[in-house]
Model the fold of this input.
Amino acid sequence: MYHTPVMLKESIDGLAIKAAGLYVDVTYGGGGHSRAILEKLGSEGRLLAFDQDSDALSNLPEDGRFTFINQNFNYLTNFLRLYKALPADGILADLGVSSHQLDAAERGFSTRFEATLDLRMNRNAGLTARQVINQYSQEELTRIFRDFGELPNAWKLALTLIEAREKQEIVTTGQLKEVLLRFTRKGQENKFYARVFQALRIEVNGELDALKSMLQQSTKSLKPGGRLVVLSYHSLEDRLVKHFMRSGNFDDTVEKDFYGNVLSPFKVLNRKAITATDEEIEHNPRARSARLRIAERTDYENIEKYS
Done:
C-alpha cells in the first residue's frame, strides 16, 4: 500500500462533510484521506488536493469532482482563488512524511536505509540535506538541531559534523549515522537518529514556515462553520496548530472582548488532542505519535470576499 492514512475515520468525521460541499486536502500523499472525502461527496461536491511530491501524480483518482495541485500548501489561497474554490467547507492536513516516502530508500527519509542525504519533499527544490550537513556553519547546524530536533547537545553535534566533514564530505545516511554514533544511547539509537533526521527534514523543506503560512491562510479560505482538521506528528507542529486554533496566533496570546469572550477566528472542537487507538497503532505504528486537532471557523470579520 502506498500509504495507510492515520485516524482516517476520526479525520473524516471531523470535517463534517456535506454532500455538496467544497473541501481541500492540503497533503494528498497516498490519497487515502482524499478518497474517503470523495466517498462522502455527492455529484455537486468538489475536492482539491495539494502535494508538492511528484510521486503523488502516479496515484490520483479519476473523478470529475477532483482537482490535483502539484504544489506546496504554502500557496493555498492563490490556487483556491485560481480554481474558484473559495471559500471552502473544510481543510484537512495530514502533516509529516508518508509511508511511501519512508519506504523509498533513495529519498533518504528513513534511518533504515543507506542512501544519499536528500530529504526533499519536492525533488525539484534546490536545498538538500547533503548541502545542509556539508555547507552550513556550526551556528546554523546548532540552531537546526536545537530548534527542530530539540536535541540538548546540539552544539556538540554541530562541532562533530564540522570536524568530520573537513576530513571527508558526508554524503550518505550511513556516514551521518556513523559520525554521530557516539552520541547515541544503547537502546535509544533509533529515537536519536529520528530527531536528527527530523531536524534536517524541517530545514530542507521549510516545514514550520509553510505550516504557519497555511494555518494563517485557512482563516481566509474557510467559510463560517467550515472545519480545519490537522494531524501532526511531533511537538513542534502540534504546538503551532494548538496555539493557532486557540488564539489565532502562534504566541498563544488570547484576546478577549469587553464581555470576556475569546476573539479568535476558530472555535476549538476538541480541547485535548485526539490520539490513535491501541488497535490502530498495532496495525500502523506511524499512528503512535499522531495528534489530531479540529476547529471550526467562527466568522467572516475582516475576511475579503471572493467571487
